[in-house]
Every structure is written in C-alpha cells, then in structure tokens.
Here is the input.
Amino acid sequence: MNGTLRRWVFLGFALVFYTTGFSQRYLSDLDSSLFIKDTLRPLLKRLDNIHMSGYIQPQFQLAQTEGSKSYNGGDFSQFSKSRFLLRRARVKLDYFLMTKDKFPKALFTFQFDATERGVNTRDMFLRLYETKHNNFALTTGLFARPFGYEVNLSSGFRESPERGRMSQILMPVERDLGVMLTFERQERKSKWKWLKIDAGVFNGPGLSGTTDFDSRKDFISRIIIKPVRLNKVEISGGLSLLQGGWRQETKYIYKNGTAVNGDNIYVVDSSLSNIGKIAPRKYYGADVQLKLHHPWGETEIRGEYWYGKQSGSTTTTTNPGTLPSTPVYIRDFNGAFFYFLQNIINKKHQLLLKYDWYDPDTKIKGKDIGRPGTNLSSTGMSYSTIGIGYTYYHSDNIKLVLYYDIVKNELTQLPGYTSDIKDNIFTCRVQFRF
Here is the structure.
C-alpha cells in the first residue's frame, strides 16, 4: 500500500470514529484506546470544530386539477395532478472557532441541496467576529438576505411546507452574494442582549442568476428584537428595509395612471434618457411574534407585513436573474403573512392556520384587468392563500406534516380569470432532521 493510499484509509477511519463520536455528543466520548488517544488525537482535535447537520423532506402532493400552477413546490406537469417529490435534502457543514474565553471567533458554513432536480449550493460564507468587545461580526459570501421573519426561518423548522407567495416572488431562493455587518452582544448578561442589527450590501439577482449583471447593489437591513419573556408571554419582532434595483436597458417605463374616461391604465414614459436609469426595488417590512407558554404546549401568533415598489415586466414581478431588455413596469405592492400555531394535548401535536396575500399592484383592481383599452395583464392580480395544517412531532428528529392550501385569486375580466382557479394543493410530508 503506497503512502497516499495509506493516508486516505487512515482519514477514512478517522472520519468514521468522528461521526460515531459526534452522535454521542462529544469527541471525548470516544473509545479511550491507545489508538484513539495517541494516534488520532491531533486529527480529531481539528475535527472537533466541525458540526454537521441536515434534513430531508420527501412528500406527496395532490392538486385540484392537472397542470396546476403552484407556489407549493413548483408547478405540476401538464397531465399530472399528483406527484411524489423530494422537496429538499440538505447537508450543512459548519467549522467554528472560539476564543480562549469561549466567545465566537470565526465561522465557515457550507450547505448544499441535492434532489431529483439537481445539486445546488445554498450557503457558502465566512463570518468573522470582533473579539475585543464581542459586539460585531462581518459576514461575506453567499448567505440569506437579512429581510423579514419568514424569509429567514429555516425550511427545516418552518411549520408550513413553503414560504408565502410574496416571499418566493420578491426573495427567490432567499440568498444572495454580498457582505454584511452585524451588531449582536455576545455577553449573556449584557443589557443589549435583546437587540440584533444586520446591514449588508448584495448583488441583487441572488441565486436567480449565475452572475451579477450590473453595478447596482441592494442595501438590506433588519433590526431584530430578540424574544423577551414576561411571565408566560414571549414577544419578539423586527423592522426590515431593502433599497436597490437594476439598470434599465429600455427607454420604456410604465407607471400607474388614469385614462381620460377614468379607467386605471399604465402610462408610458419613452424618453431616451430612461436608458441606464435604475428600475427601483424598495421594500419595507415589519414583523411581530407572540408566544404563550402553558403546561401542555404553546400558542403562537405571528404577523408580518411588507410594502413598497417593485420593478418588473408586463408578465412578471419576480426579480430577474439576467438583465431584462423588455419594458419596465413599476408597481406599488403589499402583502402579509399571518400564523396561528396551537399545541393540542401536548407538544407532539400542533395545529396551524396560515393566511397570506400578495397584491403586486395595489393601484389596480381586479375589475380593471381585462377591461377593453386598458392593456392590463394578469400580472397585476392579487392572490390570497389559507393554509390549514397538522404536524405530529414524533421526536426531535422526525415530524409528519399534513397541509392543505386554499388559493384564491382576484376575479378579473380576462378570459380564464373571471372565476377562481382550481389550484388548491394537499401536501403530506415526512421530515427527518439531524
């Protein structure tokens, strides 16, 4: 056996022992034979800084009609209304360094998602902590945008199968490349331990595209009030801000206006000076979480509201992954997410009621869309979703989710949208997390 092969075999044994030891909580729980103590100790000491976690979410879904368009795991194929789906299968590696005083010093994180649709990177970032006063941290790489509560709640812990429609349209894949400064006191007894402030600059396209297509950057910030407990009540919340946009490649800009007859329409500005201007993205958000602790579980209410301006095209309000060359439509939007969570009998059983809406153009009403002469498309339709769910927590690692989405669209005068579309979705999901 040559030297290279011996080193690989040795490393393989080390990783096997490390994985076994980690399942026992600490590396020190390993067998204290001379081989472990004297031969592998230097390697295992380095591996002691590594933490591995992950989860898998196989599921079955049933839609009302074949080919349903859905924000609950993506659209169904043309002739299918039922499917098995590996929604997420993620593995995350964290390499963590601490100071001699047990304060964080540095963190490197890598997370990937592997499903039947391919393998994709989800996180790849470095976080460096200020160690003199333990107040600040600098994060750079690919990581979650610091905007909103639902966007930043991990899919492994979120009670509903998916984030709301607005989250998926305005914050596709939730992550972006950039740099972020964080204020967060690490001292547990600090009078500021309840406060966290994130502020960062990001490319903008996120994982929707393969590269940044212009020099414009998004500024995103969130002020977070961490959970504060008053007797049996726990409250937390946050305020979010996004200021950004992208370079316009067209002279045509459409904004809301009024026709001579009083109809709501889009008014075009076709000045040549529009080329090179910024198509704006301006988001404002507020969220609050209220939790009541009682002997047989918890009752939790969450509310989150967004509003602002979103640039898009005549067919979509989704943030682009490549530089758009089509006319720009600037719309005012708003939307919200509301959760009601209730344990029943004990903490193993939980009921969920969720309501969310997304209105991509608050200046346009359903009755205006499709009216002759207005040229208003279905892109301006608002949607609301009622989610009804039950979760059984078999253990800390395994849970079963039964969930039904009732989707309602705004009624318009457009053919195919004069009544509610039959696009409700039932989801049965099993999750294993480690």
The longest strand covers residues 82-98. Residues 8-39 have pLDDT under 50 and may be disordered. The domain at 49-433 is CATH 2.40.160.10 (Porin).
